[in-house]
Amino acid sequence: MKPVLEVEGIHKYYQDKKLFGKEQSVVKAVNGVSFSLNKGEAFGLVGESGCGKSTTGKVIAQLIKQTSGVVRFQGQDLAELSAKQLKAWRKQVQIVFQDPYSSLNPKKTLEWILEEPLIIHKLGDKTWRRKRVIQVLADVGLDASFLKRYPHELSGGQRQRIAIAAALVLKPELIVIDEGVSALDVSVQAQILNLLKKLQHKYDLTYIFISHDLNVVQYFCDRIAVMYLGEIVETGTTEDIGDQPKHPYSQALFSAKPTMEGTTDRIILKGDMPDPAHAPAGCPFHTRCPLAMEQCGHVKPERVQMAGMHHVSCHLYEEGDMSHENRRCI
Ligand code: SF4
């Protein structure tokens, strides 16, 4: 099966202007990220704040342009599209943000908010658009009585349902959900996650799910990529990463995950994530890694395949290496 999305070596760099605009450094927000997605998959991007996961999502949705690298959607390199073709393509990839209140125009009714994307893309006449808006409201568990309401009249969960409806109304192939349930109560979170799953099955949607909440990601996603300092350091199925993380950073991240029993085996990392404008040489994690070796400070680890879809970038492992226990952080 051909992947719906292929991301090949994308970099997103920013010039960091210092005081008086003199000294400049380059912030490497995303630094060589590659992965592909099959239709109907839910792919999680996890990592600490500032690891580049949201920037990656925005590059995929082409809200920002990558500095280099290729984003291919259904085989088409997006960089080769004209402005007109890119506008038409935007129907296919939508993004849902954490705070629906700021992404929904407070002065407009929900009918206006949901109809606007259809008007922008010149789809249907007024009667068709109204029918489509009512249909999409039903898809997210709301009815036509919401048409004349304003965003401030809704609960947090209802607002997020409208944000999902606004993403859904154009019948996209791929939806990027950037911390889409993080601001919600746990019970509402569960309702929204179940709704997203229902929609995924109904419309064969593909999701990129960006979150710092590992429990949510494990519940929702088929595969997970762990990001650190703009790079993917480990990727695999949810079972690979959740049950047997290989990379020392993934081990630390998942050891801090709240569980019913508490987090007694938590691995505490020293220091903070380095400034992306001054990323360390060698392995990006070596300044905090409890298992760092001499070579880690100057040799960048290659991405190696452990088994199946499980890949890790760490000098502790070799291609096809299935051993695990002796490389565990303590
Ligand atoms: Fe740690 Fe070295 Fe592996 Fe990086 S390559 S994660 S520093 S052991």
Q: Can you give a write-up of this model?
A:
By secondary structure, the chain is an alpha/beta fold. It has 2 domains: 241 residues, P-loop containing nucleotide triphosphate hydrolases (Rossmann fold); 73 residues, no CATH class. Helices cover 29% and strands 23% of the residues. The strands form 2 sheets. The chain has an 8-stranded mixed beta sheet, with helices on both faces. Strands 2-1-4-5 form a 4-stranded antiparallel beta sheet. Strand 1 and strand 2 form a beta hairpin. Helix 4 packs across helix 5 and helix 5 packs across helix 6. The mean pLDDT is 91. The site of iron/sulfur cluster (SF4) has 14 residues, from loops.
User: CA-to-CA gap between the ends?
Assistant: 41 Å
Count of spatially separate domains: 2
Name the overall outline: globular
Calculate Rg over CA atoms.
21 Å
Mean pLDDT: 91
Low-confidence stretches: none
The structural class is alpha/beta
Summarize the biggest pleated sheet: 8 strands, mixed
Count of distinct strands: 12
Task: Write the CATH architecture name of the largest domain.
Answer: 3-Layer(aba) Sandwich
Fraction in beta strands: 15-25%
List keywords for this structure.
single chain; 330 residues; Rossmann fold; 2 domains; four-stranded antiparallel sheet; 10 helices; 12 strands; 23% strand; globular; binds iron/sulfur cluster
